[in-house]
Amino acid sequence: MIYKDEEWSFRDVIEETDKPSYTSVYRYGVNVVDRVGIATRNMPEWLIASAAMASISGISVSLNAGRGEDASDDAI
User: Fold this and answer.
1) Which domain does 11 fall in, by range?
2) Comparing C-alpha atoms, which of 66, 1, 65 is closest to residue 37?
3) 13-70: pLDDT as tens digits
4) Which is it for the CA torsion 24, 75, 45, 9, positive or negative?
5) DSSP letter assigned to residue 42
6) pTM score, two decimals?
């Protein structure tokens, strides 16, 4: 993956998913099929967050971070 001046290999992306996966389960108690909102613009972090949810069988719900806080509140 290439974003601006950053290059991420497949291995980099997979390794980066480990920390949010672990944190989601053991710190926040996310369980299988729990829905988790991801509010970010189209950036590498979105892919990592979405992959982290998939790796723990969670459901990632994309929220449009560009629409503002009120729009996110409505979606939730």
Assistant:
1) 2-71
2) 65
3) 889 999 999 999 999 999 998 999 888 888 888 899 999 999 999 998 888 777 666 6
4) positive
5) S
6) 0.78
